[in-house]
Amino acid sequence: MALLKAQKGNFDEALTHVKKAEQYAAQISNPRELGILLSIKARLVKRYELLSRPLQKYLDQPLPIYSSQALQYLDPYRDQYEKNLMECFIK
What we know:
Layout: H1 2-7, H2 11-28, H3 31-48, H4 53-58, H5 63-73, H6 80-90
């Protein structure tokens, strides 16, 4: 949802969805979910780094950091698209 909201220009709602996803990922304690969340953060930083101050302030790590962290948690078989995308962001 965060990516869709950001794509429509609703950056405050995107930030809300990121925060909720962080809460759920912490509750679930599933490494794959954390990897997906980190990949979404990387995609948001890549696409919208200059458009929203609150979003930019909250996502304060550089793109390669989010990407490399996501790669640590993504499933090598089920998350191949996300892994390839994160590897491109690191290069």
